[in-house]
Design a protein that fits this description.
- The complex is a heterodimer of chains A (279) and B (244).
- Chain A has 279 residues and is an alpha+beta fold.
- Chain A is 36% helix and 21% strand.
- Chain A has one domain: 4-Layer Sandwich (Glutamine Phosphoribosylpyrophosphate, subunit 1, domain 1).
- The N and C termini of chain A lie far apart (51 Å).
- By secondary structure, chain B is α+β, with helices and mostly antiparallel strands.
- Chain B contains six helices and twelve strands.
- In chain B, the strands form three sheets. Chain B has a five-stranded antiparallel sheet, with helices on one face. Chain B has a five-stranded antiparallel sheet with strand order 5-6-7-8-9, covered by helices on one side.
- In chain B, helix 3 packs antiparallel against helix 4.
- In chain B, 39% of the residues are buried.
- The chains are: A alpha+beta (279), B alpha+beta (244).
- At the A-B interface, helix 2 of A face helix 1 of B.
- Chain A: Pfam families: Proteasome (PF00227), Proteasome_A_N (PF10584).
- Chain A: InterPro entries: Ntn_hydrolases_N, Proteasome_alpha, Proteasome_alpha-type, Proteasome_alpha1, Proteasome_asu_N, Proteasome_sua/b.
């Protein structure tokens, strides 16, 4: 009822104790195309849907490498995301320059969150209109964080943001308990399945999605289109009509065959057909 | 009134020599591994060579603290470049960056005498040589450091550099094969090792063992020379007289 009176400035509280500008910024995140992230003990996978404005234009870049051990997927105002990625890269470079060791992800997300908070408390600024899924490795293992425009951040086992992310979240909620022990391949397949959920019927092709991986011994890199298409093909064998329980099994067989090994899914060694580093 | 000399200097010379030779499709760089201060040896096993990019390697003699700082700075700048351009920096690009970085500290220089080597955009070997404040030039071969005054005339003799006065300008890139170029390194370090530090002939074998870190760029592969141990070295103390 009072929304319109108290939503002009980010520095104006509503009588109910809300900052509407900040909430509107979170809306912007919901309008962006979907981005998902999931992690196991040793790997984190980020995926996003890449919709181009028209057939003539190129896709928006939504996944950025920040450092060898950190990557970020964004949803919302991509320009804000680009600027924040540049900030993150700069922080990582400066930290490694000074300490000759990689910036712990946990520190980076706090810095990001503090940066976002500043914009919620200055009358001449506006909040960043982008949500960031930060994937990274540190000595304790793999981490996935979500940074909001509000300045809050949370750690997740798996999460999805952007439009139609609820479908992906439902898929992930069903299976997140197993992710800790997942192999790298399973994690990627789950990511692709989650992306597919957000497409709601549209065929999943490597041209409309992007997948990136970071893991122990594996620097952050975006998988190239060919690799992604091969992975999509290897689980599309199951078809969309079968239940999710059946799909991973046949997907696993297809995946192993593609890798040319007879090794079982659980024992599958990592990184046979891995794409070279993005950079 | 005699000039007042400062009690403390921000600089030190850790010695050492670096050499680089460019070939048609390769570049060879070598540096000795001794780090010293005054007449004392700090370590016998320190690499002065740093890979800055896929096809660009830098060797620097002089004050190693400044060299280290320079290497870190260039590595960080290269990372920024990769983020912005999504590719590795070319050797000529890195050469310009190094020059600018050195001149930036024109009034408190990096005490670092650099030689940059690698492959240019066409895949040909390139060597760039610098002074401490960033003046640089692309050449076919070069050396910097304590032994450079001994090595340069030797390389001039062996590699027959065309006169820079000739028109049209001629490439100084050597037609030698990579293996022959590496042989030249053995000889250059040998020659410089003996006279530069004025040790008796019995100590020569000691210098052989210092010629350890060499980096070779051939086509797209970058690999480190195997250590040259006393046994493997082809030149005996008696050969010294012939070379000198």
């Amino acid at each position: 009822m009072f929304r319109n009176q108290y939503d002009t400035d980010v520095t104006t509280w509503s009588p109910a104790g809300r900052l509407f500008q900040v909430e509107y910024a979170m809306e912007a995140v919901k309008q962006g195309s979907a981005a998902i992230g999931l992690r196991s003990k040793t790997h984190v996978v980020l995926g996003c849907v890449n919709k181009a404005n028209s057939e003539l234009s190129s896709h928006q870049k939504k996944i950025f490498k920040v450092d060898d051990h950190i990557g970020v997927a964004i949803a919302g105002l991509t320009a804000d995301g680009r600027v924040l990625s540049r900030y993150m890269r700069s922080e990582c470079i400066n930290y490694s320059y000074t300490y000759e060791s990689p910036l712990p992800v946990g520190r980076l997300v706090v810095q990001l969150a503090d940066k976002a908070q500043v914009c919620t408390q200055r009358s001449w600024k506006r909040p960043y209109g982008v949500g960031l899924l930060v994937a990274g490795l540190d000595e304790k293992g793999a981490h996935l964080y979500y940074n909001c425009p509000s300045g809050n951040y949370f750690e997740y086992q798996a999460f999805a943001i952007g439009s139609r992310s609820q479908a992906a979240k439902t898929y992930l909620e069903r299976r997140f308990e197993n992710f800790s022990e997942s192999t790298r391949e399973d994690l990627i397949k789950d990511a692709l399945m989650a992306i597919r959920e957000t497409l709601q019927g549209e065929t999943l092709k490597s041209s409309i999605c992007t997948v990136a991986v970071v893991g122990a011994g594996e620097p952050f890199h975006i998988l190239d289109q060919e690799t992604v298409q091969k992975l999509i093909d290897s689980f599309d064998i199951a078809g969309t009509e079968e239940g999710p329980a059946a799909a991973p099994d046949s997907a696993a067989e297809g995946g192993s065959a593609a890798e040319g090994g007879a090794a079982s899914e659980q024992g599958a060694p990592a990184d046979e057909g891995v794409a070279p580093m993005d950079i | 009134m005699t000039k007042q000399h400062p009690a403390w200097s921000p600089y030190d010379n850790n010695g050492g020599t670096c050499v680089a030779i460019a070939g048609a499709d390769y570049c060879v760089i070598a540096a000795d591994t001794r780090m010293s201060t005054g007449y004392s040896i700090l370590t016998r096993d320190y690499s002065k060579i740093c890979k800055l990019a896929d096809k660009c390697v830098m060797a620097s003699s002089g004050f190693q603290a400044d060299v280290k700082a320079l290497q870190k700075l260039l590595a960080a700048r290269h990372l920024i470049y990769q983020h912005q351009h999504n590719k590795q920096m070319s050797c000529p690009g890195m050469a310009q960056l190094l020059s600018n970085t050195l001149y930036y500290k024109r009034f408190f220089p990096y005490y670092s005498f650099n030689v940059l080597g690698g492959l240019d955009n066409e895949g040909k070997g390139c060597v760039y040589t610098y002074d401490a404040v960033g003046s640089y030039e692309r050449v076919g071969y070069s050396s910097q450091g304590s032994g450079s005054t001994l090595i340069m005339p030797f390389l001039d003799n062996q590699l027959k550099s065309p006169s820079p006065l000739l028109l049209p300008a001629q490439d100084a890139v050597t037609p030698l094969s990579e293996a022959e170029a590496v042989d030249l390194f053995d000889m250059s370090f040998l020659a410089s090792g003996y006279v530069a530090v004025m040790m008796p002939i019995g100590e020569i074998s000691f210098f052989y063992s210092n010629i350890r870190s060499g980096v070779i760029v051939v086509e797209d592969k970058l690999y480190i020379c195997a250590p040259v141990s006393v046994k493997d070295c082809k030149f005996q103390a008696s050969d010294m007289a012939i070379i000198l």
